[in-house]
Amino acid sequence: MKRIITCFFILITCKINAATVDTVLIYSNAMQKSFKCVVIKPTVSQRKAISLPVVYLLHGYSGNYSNWITKVPALKEYADQYRIMIVCPDGGFSSWYLDSPVDSTMRFDTYIAKEVPAYIDTHYHTIANRNGRAITGLSMGGHGGLLLSFLHPDIFGACGSMSGGVDLNNVHTRFDVIKRVGDTITHAADWNKYSVINMVDIYKQHLLSGNKNDSLAILFDCGTEDIFFTENHALHEKMRRLNIPHDYIERPGHHDWLYWGNAVGFEMMFFSTYFKREAISH
């Protein structure tokens, strides 16, 4: 009987100390519809409301809001370990996280960068400024993590990408990109505008302006057998030539969940370090 009681106590303790997972509906004024979103909350003391930093974690092409928590349940452990909230919004089947210049029904830049954080900050105890927000994702979501942070450095202070499609010109015939950006002749400027590898030139100019609010903590990685490896390595080399501070990792791996499930642990550790540094400096 003593052994049974002890085991029961351990099970109850583990359950009490586990992060909780909410699924919420977040309405988009920009698209006039609601989307589901997973919110992973760490265990915190009930005696006092603690404002938490938030990592926005984006899914890839053909994915949805539930991919990350389904494929990588260890996210709950990361939330507890680093005392961060992890938010997994829905970015549509193939939105590429753009406000599409050719399809007015696709406004996922506005939704993910503005409407989702506004909802999260209203309904949860968060650090409601750029020092308490990071954004990252896999594949299409890796593109989104970097793109949205470069476009909105006033909203996100840190960003990342795992196996990101960082050069849209390399995938213009695949993954519905042409449906979101338009044809490569009429919308040539948009193809350059929305490719992360080109956006770093503008980001460099922001850094030279001396505005601290434009500075981002950046981490991106890619497997050496990944379909997007060449362009990620090229992005790293370009940022190195431009003297843009960033962390970059390349290691053996393919474009799959085995790689991303491992990579996300490094991302969470990186963002946790950023949040702690910002908390001390402010």
Q: Could you explain how this protein is built, in words?
A:
This protein is an alpha/beta fold and 282 residues long. Helix content is 42%, strand content 18%. The chain has 10 helices and 8 strands. It has helices at 2-16, 67-71, 75-82, 108-123, 140-151, 177-181, 188-193, 196-208, 229-241, 257-281; strands at residues 20-28, 33-41, 54-58, 85-89, 133-137, 158-162, 217-223, 247-251. It has an 8-stranded mixed beta sheet, with helices on both faces. Helix 5 (140-151) runs parallel beside helix 8 (196-208). The relative contact order is 0.13. Residues 1-16 have low confidence and may be disordered.
Map the helices and strands.
Layout: H1 2-16, E1 20-28, E2 33-41, E3 54-58, H2 67-71, H3 75-82, E4 85-89, H4 108-123, E5 133-137, H5 140-151, E6 158-162, H6 177-181, H7 188-193, H8 196-208, E7 217-223, H9 229-241, E8 247-251, H10 257-281
Parallel strand pairs: 3-4, 3-5, 5-6, 6-7, 7-8
Antiparallel strand pairs: 1-2, 2-4
Helix pairs in contact: 5-8
